[in-house]
Structures are given as C-alpha cells and as structure tokens.
Write a structure and sequence with these properties.
Length: 462
Amino acid sequence: MRTLLKNAHIVTAVDNYIADILIDGETIAAIGKLSIEESTIDKVIDIQGNLVTPGGIDPHVHLEMPFMGTFSSDSYETGTRAALYGGTTTLIDFVLQTQGKSLQHALDDWNTRAKDNTLCDYSFHMAVTDYNNETKKEIQHFIENEGITSFKTFMAYKGALMIDDRQMIGLMQEVKKHGGLINVHATNGDMIDYLIAKHKAEGKLAPLYHYLSQPEVTEAEASARFADLANYTGCPGYIVHLTCEGALNAVRNATKRNQKVFVETCIQYLILDASLYEQNFEGAKWVMSPPLREKKDQATLWAGINQGLVQVVATDHCPFMWEQKLMGKDDFSKIPNGHPAIENRMELLFSEGVQKGKITLNKFVEVSSTNAAKIFGMYPKKGTIAVGSDADLVIWNENENHTISATTHHMNVDYSGYEGWECKGKIKQVFLRGSLVIDNNLCTINKGFGQFIKRNKVKNFI
Ligand SMILES: [Zn+2]
C-alpha cells in the first residue's frame, strides 16, 4: 500500500515546513516536493492547511492494572483505541512484579491481557518491587532478549510496591551494567504513611486529606535522594510524574554537578490544581499520587519544559469507574488512585501549551513524542517524521474547537477529569505504521493491530 500525503505542514522536534510525504507499507519512503506518477499510488490525500506531527508517545499508562481486587477500567482494547483517537500511537505500560515472585512471572501475566488485544503499538516498563539475588539474574535477559530496558521503582507504597535504598542501589548497579534505565516514583513512602495514619486517627477522611498527606516535601526529598543514588551509581534515571517546584529544584541542583536526570510530568499537573480537592467527594476524580499541586507548581513545570529540565509530558492514565472510586467514600486512603487522560493528553497540551503561547510547536512534538522515543530506545523508528521511520502520523485542524466530555470520549470510564474543557485544535486523522487508523472520529482497525516494540539499550543523554 502506497499513500501520498500532499502539501503536509510537517512539524517535528526541529523542523517546520511544507512538503509531500510518501508512505510505502509501514514506513515513510520519501519527503519533499514529490512528483510521482499517481498510477503507482494507491491513495492520494491532499491535506493542505493541516498540521502533521509524529504519532504521540505516552510512556506512562496503566491499562487493566490489578488493584485492590479490581482492575483499572480501561482494557488493552479500550485504552489503546482511546489512545489512537487522541493521537497517541505508542504507549508504555508498567508490568508490576509481585513481591516473592519473579519478573518473568509478572511479564507472563501482563502478556495474557495485552497480547492480541491492543490497537496501538506498545511496550512495557518492568516494575521491580522485590530486588533480590533471583531478580538480579533476570535483568540482563530483559534488556537483551525481551527489549524491556527500563525498570520502575517505587520509593512509596510501603508493604506493596516500595523498595528500600539498599535494593535501589543494587538494582541501579545491575541495570547500569547492562545498558538500562531506572524510572522512579519519587515520594517519601514513610512520611506519607505517617501522614495518612495521622489524618485518619483525627477523623479527617475526605479526599482533601489525600492531598494533605503528600505535601511537596515528600516529593522533593525523594527526588533529591534518587538523584544522589543515581549519581553515585552512574545509572541513568528518569523521574516519573514529577509535579512540583521542590522536586524540580532537586533535579536542577543535580545539574550543578554535571548530572543528567530525566524528568516526566503529566498533563494534569500542568493544567489542574489542588483547589479541585476542596469540593467534598467530587475531588475523588483527581485522587492520584502524587496529587495535583498549586498554581506556582504549574508555572515551574511549564518553565521546566522550556528550560529542557522536563523532557516528557505523559498521563499516568489509570482510570476507575465512579463506582470504584466510591470504595473510598468514607476513607480517602481507599480511593483507587488515578484518572483518565490517555485520549486527552495531546489535544490538551496543544490547546493549553501551543495555542496559549506557552510552548512552541517544535517543543510540543519534543515532549509529546520525540524525547520519549529517544529516552526509551525507540528512536528514530518512533518519535519523528523522517525517511525510514514508521509512518505514525497525526493530522490536525489547528483551528477547530471542541469540548471534552465523558459522553463523547472513548475511554472506558464514566466521568472525565476535564468535563466541559474547551480545546482549540482537533485531531482529524491518525496513521499507525502506514495505515489510516483514525479517520474523522472513526476508528478503522480492530484489536490485535498493535505491535509490541522491543526497545534498544538507553543512554544517559538524548
Ligand atoms: Zn503510574
């Protein structure tokens, strides 16, 4: 199948120009002012006036994640379909090791849910929750044979997911040795545990106390400690869902000793704030960890993007139905953590970032796609528009307005964290590996189309 996109306004992390794009099979075969005999082309689409950006990459999602006897409400099918509607063509989910069991056991478990059920392309991070001599032996195999080169650690969720600093250092040394990277949930688990227990003992049980149990210092302290451990071991490090000024300053301080720590924030931390927790139980819609922060933190994060300190804008997509959220009706610590955003990330970032003059178009592409591809070993197959790259393309009408609503979104969740939000700029068509998969609000493929992406070893710079 050969498709010619004529008069495309192409934007990558570095370029901005008008040209034709020839797609041959799954990849981009030529870009330029192309004069090709049209009889050799199966489909010609003139997209004059439309922007074309690389397919979005969301490296932080949780689909069908087991939690408290239930699962996050998007399956691999519904979540990856919603991702495509929102211009995300590749995502990275997290496999969670069960303490006492092997990494392979967890991967097998996740594969039973994901395999043959995804629509977009995908990969996994391996979350190590129990680092011991047996786990250590599996690291090299995952990096070299499975193409899983990033290992997630939790400095919080004591007794379930958290590892201590001794395990962290051991894991970092092993991961560095074989060319991988550590992603970290950097908050101080002991402090948070203490504050949750304190608030509960005082009868403070509303969602607001979820927020007040995770003050900025819990994240700033852990981010600084993680940076110190990464610096000591020399292991590439990536802080997931960084939310606040104190934590970003920890990373900024690390640069003064010539260290590089990668930083991801999520769309919600750029545009929502903690005032949402002040409305009784409604605030449960935004109960996530870390919680939403203050306006001054939003300003820090936008600045951090433009300073190159924040490289990636993800979602931490982890939806729960309202009924599931009600598990914590009388106790904020029982509210399932997470909110839906996989479908909204690209359009919200475009609307709030590019259209409101906070970031350039090139920066938008960098933080929504290119940097994630580079950091996680998928570039230039993914993350750019170039000859030889996968033809993962998003076609935009930058002037079309639309309103986000649970009544029209495709995520399997019965509320939206952005209900009524006006977006300027609409995704009209999406190509994944050369196939037109979203065409004006219609998804044209079925589950099983998505491919697992084996990733390359990573470096400490991009
Ligand atoms: Zn997460």
